[in-house]
């Protein structure tokens, strides 16, 4: 089977969140000298408390993850004289997989197109990454989009490396999808290493998981629906003893993870896209005829959830996620997850969240959800030593 057919076969497969194993929740007791040293010398007081009250919340958002049970759609479709390359439906992993599936879309363009001019629909994290990769291969790219950042779903994400979060439903996705996911994950992971040190658009942070009960195989406190894992890609989760952490909890782990400072990241890449001669046109695609009317013969579709009505994709479903943004705290630089709540410190604020409601199109923030998350985290902070 050639690579293209392989992708095409895989994208019509499907997968189920509900039975996913949280492989990435594995912990290690074989603490290495270097890692122990890091905290014993400095003590747990180096984990500052969150300044948390309702009046410190300055922004609340609800974003809609573009979820497809069979996994993201990455395939070529003919539309009259046009060649459409689809690259949408990344669920809760679009930030993480953007470069990897962008690379797959680029290969599909290279396999079909002789024309160097490419139209790309959509200006979220997936569209921008795909556009940059096409430019790197010598294509002249024009982005046609309804909206640009900050008015895109990608701006409403948490911004953590979570390539398996709600990426598919394992009960529906075809077995081949796992290999595609691994390829995309590996490509993205390598790419992100080249983005380190550039005004922190991408960086490493410490991530704590704080629980009162022993972790199960499947865990609701995770980023949500994590289906696959590549062992060894991230540093292992270290289990911490009571002496090594300040939380009033029995099961605490720490690991390093990648995160993305969303506003500066998107700005950086959009500026790069323009610097390499790319064009952005505000242009809404309402029907297939609008695509037919574009001057380019090759069209890459990165419209996220916006692809649903245009391509009549019945699989594509929103999974809403609410975030509350606290005023940034310069001393607090970590991520924490616990049952029912998590937070991550970004440059532009500390983001509390996030839930996931399948099939919910409502983007109105719920006060009840905010109060629930705030109350869980306030309780955790109050009972913290130090
Ligand atoms: C609360 C929340 C937390 C998340 N956390 C993470 C995380 O930590 N890590 C992670 O990897 N992922 C995360 N995600 C998932 C991630 O945000 C998405 O998978 C990703 O943003 C999808 O990117 P996209 O570019 O495909 O879509 P979008 O950002 O939605 O971009 C789509 C683009 O297409 C354009 N468009 C849409 N319709 C049309 C049309 N008809 N005509 C023209 N243009 C159109 C839009 O204007 C936009 O420019 C999270 C999502 C949410 C909601």
From TrEMBL:
EC number: 1.4.3.3
SUPFAM superfamilies attached to this UniProt entry: Nucleotide-binding domain
GO biological process: D-amino acid catabolic process
FAD dependent oxidoreductase domain residues: 31-105, 118-381
Ranges in a coiled coil: none
Domain of life: Bacteria
Entry keyword set: FAD, Flavoprotein, Oxidoreductase
PROSITE patterns from the UniProt entry: PROKAR_LIPOPROTEIN
Required cofactor names: FAD
GO MF annotations, alphabetized: D-amino-acid oxidase activity; FAD binding
One cellular-component annotation, GO: cytoplasm
Catalytic activity: a D-alpha-amino acid + O2 + H2O = a 2-oxocarboxylate + H2O2 + NH4(+)
InterPro entries, A to Z: DAO, FAD-dep_OxRdtase
Family note: Belongs to the DAMOX/DASOX family.
Protein name: D-amino-acid oxidase
Organism in which the protein naturally occurs: Arundinibacter roseus
């Amino acid at each position: 089977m050639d690579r293209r057919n392989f992708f095409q076969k895989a994208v019509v497969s499907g997968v189920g969140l509900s039975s996913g194993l949280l492989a990435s929740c594995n912990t290690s007791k074989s603490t290495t000298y270097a890692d122990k040293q890091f905290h014993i010398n400095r003590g747990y007081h180096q984990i500052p408390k969150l300044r948390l009250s309702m009046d410190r919340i300055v922004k609340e958002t609800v974003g809609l993850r573009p979820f497809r049970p069979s996994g993201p759609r990455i395939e070529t479709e003919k539309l009259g004289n046009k060649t459409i390359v689809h690259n949408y439906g990344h669920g809760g992993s679009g930030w993480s997989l953007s470069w990897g599936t962008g690379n797959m879309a680029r290969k599909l363009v290279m396999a079909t197109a002789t024309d160097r001019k490419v139209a790309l629909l959509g200006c979220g994290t997936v569209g921008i990454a795909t556009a940059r990769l096409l430019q790197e291969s010598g294509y002249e790219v024009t982005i046609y989009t309804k909206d640009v950042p900050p008015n895109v779903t990608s701006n409403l994400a948490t911004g953590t490396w979570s390539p398996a979060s709600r990426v598919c439903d394992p009960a529906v996705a075809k077995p081949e999808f796992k290999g595609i996911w691994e390829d995309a994950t590996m490509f993205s992971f390598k790419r992100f290493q080249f983005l380190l040190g550039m005004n922190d658009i991408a960086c490493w942070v410490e991530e704590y998981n704080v629980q009162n009960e022993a972790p199960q195989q499947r865990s609701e406190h995770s980023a949500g629906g994590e289906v696959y894992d590549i062992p060894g890609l991230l540093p292992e989760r270290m289990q911490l003893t009571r002496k090594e952490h300040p939380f009033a909890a029995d099961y605490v782990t720490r690991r390093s993870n990648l995160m993305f400072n969303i506003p500066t990241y998107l700005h950086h890449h959009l500026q790069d896209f323009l610097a390499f001669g790319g064009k952005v046109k505000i242009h809404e695609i309402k029907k297939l005829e609008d695509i037919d009317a574009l001057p380019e013969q090759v069209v890459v579709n990165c419209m996220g959830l916006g692809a649903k009505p245009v391509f009549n994709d019945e699989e594509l479903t929103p999974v809403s996620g609410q975030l509350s943004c606290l005023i940034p705290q310069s001393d607090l630089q970590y991520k924490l997850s616990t049952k029912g709540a998590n937070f991550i410190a970004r440059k532009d604020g500390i983001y509390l969240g996030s839930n996931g409601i399948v099939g919910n199109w409502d983007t109105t923030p719920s006060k009840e959800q905010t109060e629930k998350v705030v109350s869980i985290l306030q309780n955790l902070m109050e009972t913290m030593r130090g």
